[in-house]
Amino acid sequence: MPYVEILAPRASESNKRTVVDAVTGGIVQAFGVAPSTVTIYFVAVADGDYAHEGRLGAPAAGGRVFAKVHAYRRSADERRAAAQAMTPAIAACFDTAPDNVAVYFMDRELDEVAHAGQLSSDEEPRTTTTA
Q: Which string of DSSP letters, residue by residue, matches 19-79?
């Protein structure tokens, strides 16, 4: 965690690699987490699975892109920094304007997330030690 879902048209692998670098780096910087905690899912949306303004079908260019960031609750400043880091790369990847990129933060409390069957709120606090 954090997990990022990007719902958008298909994109080239090279464009997606650019997004992976920007989104991972932006979240690492904004949230103060390790890259090993960031997972990104590209959910391809076919033309017939997209509608806007009551019209079915993706526009020729400039469609909307939806990114959901599932993470533990962060401050508004941290969320703002993550959105600012993510948006330009996502817009470029999917050939749309930054105004068409919506980033929704799906904040979770520790007792709303489980890994390996254990609530995060039940985990022992992690401490670092020096050898």
A: HHHHHHHHHHHHHT--GGG-EEEEEE--GGG-EETTEES--SS---EEEEEEEE---HHHH
pLDDT, one tens digit per residue, over 1-21 is 899 999 999 999 999 999 999
Q: What is the pLDDT of residues 58-101, one digit of tens each?
A: 887 778 999 999 999 999 999 999 999 999 999 999 999 999 99
Whole-angstrom CA distances from 48 to 9, 70, 82 are: 11, 27, 31
For 21, 41, 59, 110, 111, the CA distances from 122, given in Å and listed in that order, are 32, 27, 47, 8, 8
CATH node for 3-122: 3.30.429.10
Domain boundaries, the chain: 3-122
pTM of the model: 0.87
- Residues 2 and 69 sit within 8 Å (Cβ to Cβ): yes
Token code pair at residue 121: 């709120």
